[in-house]
């Protein structure tokens, strides 16, 4: 059901890869709530062609941008402002990539060159996006930026590998830049810590199927779906959350504050 929570608002969605991705679902939800959109992803992702289906569904242009390339980001914001005929109201940062995970490197034996690229793409990319918007004065007053994260930034999940470090850095950037952007223009910046979700990227983590089942048993409400996360993003982009900033917001069915559940105990006693 649409309440037109985002009517008149304009936003950029980073990272919509395919129909499984949270960014994809968020774009659909924002469009349904009345927002105008620009979609963007890395050139290698654009070559897959999937994003064009989404662009047609939400009536949005696709502007490619490498998130570690400042010139690409400046072009993205320039073209987006031109397309919208004015400033931007919200941004979704849904970007993550680990070369060490892809290459099967154990956390204790990571390749540091790969690690630098992981941190640059998965975390520092948020700083680059925010810095570009900040310097270009691209975001409107009371704008909202959301980046997707995971509880491995606070707790140990061995197979999440170096991505845990990247998410911790991402959350730190959210707080630090959130202060500066809040002072400058009342822009709010938050992270949403989502349940393990069956996205193309998430499914690449070792032991994912077993863990998603465990998380389901550990969450009083069960795991939050990608659609649920998309709806939460909509509320964060809306004027209903104008005073929320610099927060890491758990969206995980209660997993983050649950010590143990009867379902897990029963499973262990079998």
**Could you say what the CATH topology is called?**
Rossmann fold
Radius of gyration: 18 Å
Mean of pLDDT: 94
What does the overall shape look like? globular
What does this structure look like?
- Helix 7 (163-185) links the parallel strand 4 and strand 5 (188-194).
- 45% of the residues lie in helices and 14% in strands.
- The longest helix is centred in the middle third of the chain and has 25 residues, at 112-136.
- Helix 4 (70-84) runs parallel beside helix 6 (112-136).
- The chain is an alpha/beta fold and 270 residues long.
- The chain has helices spanning 22-32, 43-46, 51-58, 70-84, 99-102, 112-136, 163-185, 208-218, 226-237, 262-269; strands spanning 10-14, 36-40, 88-93, 139-149, 188-194, 248-251.
- The protein contains ten helices and six strands.
- The chain has one domain (10-269): Rossmann fold.
Write a compact overview of the structure shown.
By secondary structure, this protein is α/β, with parallel strands linked by helices. The chain has helices at residues 22-32, 43-46, 51-58, 70-84, 99-102, 112-136, 163-185, 208-218, 226-237, 262-269, and strands at residues 10-14, 36-40, 88-93, 139-149, 188-194, 248-251. The chain has one domain: NAD(P)-binding Rossmann-like Domain (Rossmann fold), CATH 3.40.50.720.
Note the main attributes of this structure.
270 residues; alpha/beta; six-stranded parallel beta sheet
């Amino acid at each position: 059901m649409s309440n037109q929570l985002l009517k008149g608002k304009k936003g950029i969605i980073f990272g919509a890869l395919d129909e499984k991705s949270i960014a994809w679902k968020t774009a659909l939800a924002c469009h349904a709530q009345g927002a105008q959109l620009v979609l963007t992803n890395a050139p290698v992702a654009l070559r897959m062609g999937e994003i064009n289906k989404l662009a047609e569904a939400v009536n949005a242009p696709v502007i490619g941008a490498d998130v570690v390339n400042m010139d690409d980001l400046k072009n993205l914001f320039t073209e987006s402002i031109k397309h919208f005929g004015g400033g931007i109201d919200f941004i979704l940062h849904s970007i993550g990539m680990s070369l060490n995970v892809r290459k099967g490197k154990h956390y204790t034996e990571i390749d540091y060159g790969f690690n630098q690229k992981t941190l640059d793409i998965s975390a520092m990319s948020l700083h680059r996006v925010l810095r570009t918007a900040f310097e270009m004065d691209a975001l409107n007053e009371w704008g909202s930026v959301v980046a997707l994260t995971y509880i491995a930034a606070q707790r140990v999940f061995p197979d999440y590998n170096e991505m845990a470090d990247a998410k911790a850095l991402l959350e730190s950037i959210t707080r630090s830049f959130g202060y500066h952007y809040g002072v400058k223009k009342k822009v709010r910046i938050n992270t949403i810590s989502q349940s393990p979700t069956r996205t193309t990227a998430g499914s690449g983590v070792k032991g994912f199927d077993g863990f998603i089942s465990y998380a389901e048993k550990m969450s009083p409400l069960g795991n939050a779906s990608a659609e649920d996360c998309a709806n939460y993003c909509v509320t964060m982009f809306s004027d209903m959350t104008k005073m929320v900033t610099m927060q890491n917001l758990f969206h995980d069915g209660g997993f983050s504050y649950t010590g143990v559940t009867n379902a897990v105990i029963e499973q262990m006693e079998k």
